[in-house]
Design goal:
about 180 residues, two-stranded antiparallel sheet, single chain, Cyclic Phosphodiesterase, Chain: A, alpha+beta, Cyclic_Pdiesterase
Length: about 180
């Protein structure tokens, strides 16, 4: 069974990104019932769950909520079959991703590496059109407001098991500290 370690946003960020998600889903003929936007950090195949819980808790515990900045580049991931928005200034999230990957490897939990650039998964797609594949980096004018890029606030990390039932998707949640 595949498990995903993902980063999620606060409610205000979801209100900001929902119109972008709807427009991109229409444009690329994405699935209408896509999950809420998230940043996929790791994909794990059949890990020892107790060990995984303690390792992730140890890594996430010292961090507080932080912001990320959206880029206006839209890309399509062939491996995950998703429409993605790239992230600018990926300092905190990149550091957490690297330490998570390295610590999981040290504890014997092997993960699949995702693309080098971290991105926000906006919508799932079943079929990748040849036109869309050629235009892999498309600029999205909805991401910029008043000449500035949108910022979203990461509020928690979760372990997901992808299933058809939305209630069974989240296995464990790790909220970040607030100051």
């Amino acid at each position: 069974m595949k498990y995903y370690v993902v980063a999620l946003f606060d409610e205000d960020s979801y209100e900001t990104i929902t119109p972008i998600q709807r427009n991109l889903s229409k444009k690329f003929r994405g699935n209408r019932h896509s999950p809420m936007p998230y940043i996929a950090l790791n994909i794990l195949d059949n890990p020892n769950m107790e060990k995984l819980y303690t390792v992730i808790d140890k890594i996430i515990r010292p961090y507080k909520k932080f912001k990320i900045e959206l880029c206006d580049d839209v890309s399509i991931s062939d491996t995950m079959k998703t429409i993605n928005l790239k992230i600018l200034n990926e300092g905190y999230i990149k550091k957490i991703n690297r330490s998570l990957r390295d610590t999981l490897e040290l504890h014997g939990i092997h993960s699949k590496n995702l693309e080098n650039d971290l991105s926000i998964s906006i919508a799932n797609i079943n079929y990748i059109n040849k036109e869309n594949k050629k235009n892999n980096d498309i600029a999205c004018d909805l991401v910029k407001k008043d000449g500035k890029n949108l910022t979203l606030k990461v509020s928690k990390f979760e372990i997901w098991k992808i299933s058809n039932n939305k209630k069974e998707t989240c296995i464990k949640s790790y909220p970040l500290k607030t100051f």
